[in-house]
Structure to design on (614 residues):
C-alpha cells in the first residue's frame, strides 16, 4: 500500500496509547531511576519516554525471546509424554516508540528465521506484533544507521511511524494494513497533515557498507582481525544487546519428572559455540570469533540473506566493556 | 500455520548393538505408523536424536535408505546426551528430528569405482552410503573400503566388517595404528594414509569418499592427490556442531555456507572455497 500521512496532536497521543492498550499488551520505553532506558509492558503513558536515543537492550525479544519454550515433557519410569508449546497462545503486542533501527531489525530476523523452513514461533510472534515507530530527533556518537542503508526517520518495519514536529505534535506515516486498521478504529485522532517539516536527527555516514562487504570477501586472512580483537573478552555482550543477532542454543531443563526443551540466545563470540564433541574447535581463538561476527553481518548475510545483518543502532559499541567500536572498525575495513 | 519444526518423532529402540565399550548402534522404529509412512531420507542426511530431560545430539543416519522401516544411528559416549542414550534399553523411547541436510550423489556415481576411506568413529556417517551402494551393487564398478582405528577394539561394525571381508565383490582393508593390534589381528598395521599409499587404488573413473578425524584427513589428502584424484571427485561429510539442523541457530555457519543446509556432504573442491572453519 502507498503510505499515507496524517497528523496526531500532542494531546491525542495519550488517547491513541490508551486505545492500543485495550485488550492487548503494549511494550513501551521508560526511563529507569538510574537514567537508563528500557522497554516495559503496559507502563503508564506519563512514564513513557519520547526523547531517548536508545534502550539498553533491543526489542528483538518480542519475536525472539531470550528463552522460548519449544516442548514440555513428563518423564516417568514407564512413560515419557511430550507436549508442544502452543503457538496459538502467543498474544498480540503493540510495540510503541521503536526507533527506525530497531523496527528495521525485524525484517533481518525474518530473513534468518523464515529463509527456508519457517520457524513457527518466530513467525507467529511477528504476525501478532504491531510496531508504532518513532523517528529519532537526537542521536549520539554511537549511531550509524545512515551507514547501513537506514536513516533516523526510515519507515522500514513500522506499521505506523511517528515523527516529531516543532510544536510537539507528530506526523504519522500509515505504512501497512495493520497501521490502517488502527487509523480506522480511531479516525478522530488522525487529522490532515499540513506538510510541516519533521524534526530529525543528523547521523553522519561513517562508512560505505558496499565497500566494506567487497573488502571483507578478500580479507578473511588479514592481521586486522587479530590486531582489532586482542582485547575482546568474549563476553557476548555485543550479541546480547544486538537487535539482529539470532544465534541460539537448544537445551533441556528438568525439575522432578517435568521438564522443557527451550531455545535461548547464544553468541558466536563464545569459545564453546562451535566446539566439536572431539574437542576440536573450528574457531578456537577469539580473533576468529570476532571475524565471524563481522563477516556474518557484513559479508555472509548480504550474500546469503540479501540483507546486511546490522541496523547501526550502536548498542554493541556502547555496551562493550573494553570499548570495541564496530563502526570504527568498519570504517577502517573500507581501506584495508 | 505450519508445523512445529522442533517437535521430534517418537522412536522405539528395537535393537542395540554394543560396537565397542563406549559405542552403541541403535535400530529405531517410528512409534506412529503415519510418521513411518511419511518419512523418507537419503544417504548422507542427519538428524537430531534426543532424550527428554537431557537434550539433543546430532548424528548422521547410519543405515541405508534401501533398508526400509527403520533407521539406525551409531554414537560414542562423549557428553550429557550420548551418556543418557547409552543408558537406554530395548523398548525405550528416543526423539528424532530429521532428516536434514544434503545427500551423497549416489546416482551420479553409477558406473564408477568407489573408494571409501574412514577413520575411527567416522565410519558411521559413511556406513549409510556404503550400504546404499552395496545394496545396489550392480550399478557400481569396484568398491573398496579402507577403514582404520586406533586399536582393534575401537573398530566399529565388527559383524559387518566380517561380512564385507567375506564378499568377493567388495575389497575391504582394515588397519589399526601400530601397537593397537592383537595377537590374532590379520589386517594391516599402520595409519590410514600409509595404508592408502601402499594399496594405491587407481583414480581412473573413481570417486573417493573420505571421513575421519582432522589429522587423518590432513595426511590422506596429499596421498589422494598423488594418486591422481581430482578435487571434485573427493567427497567428505562435515561434522560441525549444530543445534537446530535447518540453518537458523548459526553454529555450523562456515563462510556463507550452513553445513546443515548446504552440507554435510561436500566435495574437496567445495571445501577449498570455504574458510577452514570445520
Amino acid at each position: 500500500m502507498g503510505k499515507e500521512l496524517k497528523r496526531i496532536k500532542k494531546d491525542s497521543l495519550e488517547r491513541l496509547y490508551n486505545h492500543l492498550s485495550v485488550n492487548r499488551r503494549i511494550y513501551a520505553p521508560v526511563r529507569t531511576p538510574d537514567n537508563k532506558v528500557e522497554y516495559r509492558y503496559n507502563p503508564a503513558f506519563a512514564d513513557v519516554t519520547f526523547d531517548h536515543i536508545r534502550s539498553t537492550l533491543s526489542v528483538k525479544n518480542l519475536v525472539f525471546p531470550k528463552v522460548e519454550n519449544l516442548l514440555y515433557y513428563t518423564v516417568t519410569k514407564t512413560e515419557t509424554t511430550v507436549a508442544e508449546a502452543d503457538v496459538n497462545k502467543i498474544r498480540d503486542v503493540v510495540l510503541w516508540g521503536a526507533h527506525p533501527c530497531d523496527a528495521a531489525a525485524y525484517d533481518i530476523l525474518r530473513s534468518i528465521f523464515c529463509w527456508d523452513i519457517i520457524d513457527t514461533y518466530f513467525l507467529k510472534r511477528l504476525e501478532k506484533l504491531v510496531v508504532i515507530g518513532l523517528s529519532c530527533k537526537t542521536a549520539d556518537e554511537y549511531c550509524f544507521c545512515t551507514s547501513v542503508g537506514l536513516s533516523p526517520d526510515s519507515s522500514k518495519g513500522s506499521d505506523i511511524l511517528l515523527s516529531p514536529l516543532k510544536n510537539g505534535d507528530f506526523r504519522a506515516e500509515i505504512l501497512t494494513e495493520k497501521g490502517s486498521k488502527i487509523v480506522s478504529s480511531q479516525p478522530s485522532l488522525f487529522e490532515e497533515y499540513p506538510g510541516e517539516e519533521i524534526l530529525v536527527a543528523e547521523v553522519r555516514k561513517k562508512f560505505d557498507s558496499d565497500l566494506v562487504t567487497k573488502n571483507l570477501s578478500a580479507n578473511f586472512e588479514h592481521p586486522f582481525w587479530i590486531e582489532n580483537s586482542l582485547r575482546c573478552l568474549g563476553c557476548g555482550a555485543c550479541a546480547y544487546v544486538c537487535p539482529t543477532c539470532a544465534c541460539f542454543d537448544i537445551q533441556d531443563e528438568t525439575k522432578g519428572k517435568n521438564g522443557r526443551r527451550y531455545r535461548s540466545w547464544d553468541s558466536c563470540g563464545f569459545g564453546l559455540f562451535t566446539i566439536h564433541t572431539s574437542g576440536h574447535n573450528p574457531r578456537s581463538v577469539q580473533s576468529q570469533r570476532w571475524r565471524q561476527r563481522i563477516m556474518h553481518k557484513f559479508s555472509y548475510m548480504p550474500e546469503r540473506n540479501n540483507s546486511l545483518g546490522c541496523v547501526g543502532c550502536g548498542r554493541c559499541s556502547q555496551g562493550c566493556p573494553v570499548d570495541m567500536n564496530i563502526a570504527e572498525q568498519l570504517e577502517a575495513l573500507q581501506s584495508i | 500455520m505450519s508445523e512445529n519444526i522442533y517437535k521430534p518423532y517418537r522412536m522405539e529402540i528395537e535393537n542395540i548393538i554394543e560396537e565397542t565399550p563406549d559405542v552403541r548402534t541403535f535400530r529405531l522404529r517410528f512409534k506412529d505408523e503415519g510418521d513411518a509412512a511419511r518419512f523418507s531420507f537419503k544417504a548422507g542426511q542427519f538428524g537430531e536424536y534426543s532424550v527428554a530431560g537431557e537434550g539433543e545430539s546430532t548424528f548422521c543416519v547410519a543405515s541405508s535408505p534401501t533398508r526400509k522401516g527403520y533407521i539406525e544411528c551409531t554414537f560414542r559416549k562423549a557428553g550429557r546426551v550420548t551418556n543418557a542414550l547409552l543408558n537406554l534399553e530395548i523398548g525405550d523411547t528416543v526423539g528424532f528430528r530429521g532428516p536434514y541436510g544434503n545427500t551423497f550423489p549416489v546416482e551420479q556415481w553409477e558406473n564408477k569405482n568407489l573408494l571409501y576411506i574412514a577413520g575411527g568413529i567416522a565410519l558411521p556417517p559413511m556406513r549409510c552410503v556404503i550400504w546404499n551402494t552395496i545394496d545396489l551393487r550392480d550399478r557400481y564398478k569396484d568398491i573398496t573400503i579402507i577403514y582404520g582405528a586406533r586399536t582393534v577394539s575401537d573398530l566399529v561394525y565388527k559383524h559387518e566388517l566380517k561380512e564385507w571381508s567375506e564378499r568377493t565383490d567388495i575389497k575391504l582393508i582394515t588397519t589399526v595404528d601400530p601397537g593397537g593390534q592383537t595377537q590374532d589381528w590379520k589386517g594391516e598395521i599402520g595409519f590410514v594414509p600409509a595404508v592408502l599409499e601402499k594399496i594405491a587404488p587407481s583414480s581412473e573413473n573413481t570417486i573417493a569418499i573420505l571421513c575421519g578425524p582432522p589429522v587423518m584427513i590432513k595426511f590422506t589428502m596429499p596421498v589422494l592427490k598423488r594418486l591422481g584424484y581430482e578435487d571434485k571427485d573427493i567427497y567428505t561429510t562435515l561434522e560441525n556442531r549444530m543445534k537446530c539442523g535447518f540453518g537458523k541457530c548459526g553454529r555450523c555457519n562456515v563462510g556463507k555456507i550452513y553445513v546443515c543446509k548446504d552440507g554435510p556432504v561436500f566435495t574437496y573442491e567445495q571445501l577449498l572455497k570455504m574458510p577452514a572453519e570445520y
Q: What stands out?
A: The mean pLDDT of chain B is 95. Chain B has three domains: 9-100, 117-237, 238-278. Residues 32 and 38 of chain B are 10 Å apart (CA to CA). Residues 9-100 of chain B form a domain with the Elongation Factor Tu (Ef-tu); domain 3 fold (CATH 2.40.30.10).
